[in-house]
Specification:
- With 176 residues, the protein is of the alpha+beta class.
- It has five helices and six strands, in the order ααβββαβαββα.
- Strands 1-2-3-4-6-5 form a six-stranded mixed beta sheet, with helices on both faces.
- α1 packs across α2.
- It starts with 12 loop residues before the first helix and ends in a 5-residue tail after the last helix.
- The N terminus is likely disordered.
Length: 176
């Protein structure tokens, strides 16, 4: 994550992400009270970790955050039966100045396409909070199936997975 100048309005990536993760709409990121320094430290740790990455992406000129991780090393280590080719994912859409219908679905679709562009990835796993019904609906729309509820140190999570085939079946329908 770039923490230097040169971003929107001269803000660093860390300043942008801080704005996003502390926004009330991002409550499930559990960083609502985070200071800029906390976000810088968190994403510096992600950047330094050999099994975790964070990216700022653009879709139709609007920004989003994507994290990719090895679930056998980060987030889900020891909490589920990993399969070869598993990759973990988080995504966050920047709080919109003007909401755009269907944008978040377009972002998760873009994130999944990006992950499956790697031929080694066979399945994407996620662990959203059990009460995050909006993300559960988005996950279902792109092919995720619930495996089970799991207990993580910070939350009760709904472990879900989506294979390449499930994603393709969910996103190649006539209405897409």
């Amino acid at each position: 994550m770039d923490t230097g100048p040169g971003r929107k309005g001269g803000r660093s990536d860390a300043e942008l992400v801080h704005e996003w993760v502390t926004h009330p709409r991002s409550a499930f990121w559990m960083m609502g009270d985070a200071r800029l320094e906390d976000v810088e430290r968190e994403y510096a740790a992600i950047a330094a970790h050999p099994h975790h990455d964070a990216f700022i992406g653009l879709h139709d000129g609007r920004a989003f955050l994507m994290e990719r991780y090895d679930p056998t090393e980060v987030e889900l280590a020891g909490l589920y039966d990993a399969e070869p080719g598993d990759i973990g994912m988080h995504f966050l859409v920047a709080p919109p100045e003007t909401p755009v219908h269907g944008f978040t679905l377009a972002v998760i679709t873009t994130v999944m396409e990006t992950l499956f562009a790697d031929p080694a990835v066979r399945r994407v796993v996620v662990e959203p909070d059990v009460t995050n019904s909006a993300v559960h609906a988005l996950n279902k729309a792109v092919g995720f199936e619930v495996i089970r509820e799991i207990t993580k140190p910070e939350k009760q999570a709904l472990l879900s997975a989506c294979t390449r085939e499930q994603f393709e079946a969910a996103t190649t329908g006539a209405d897409r």
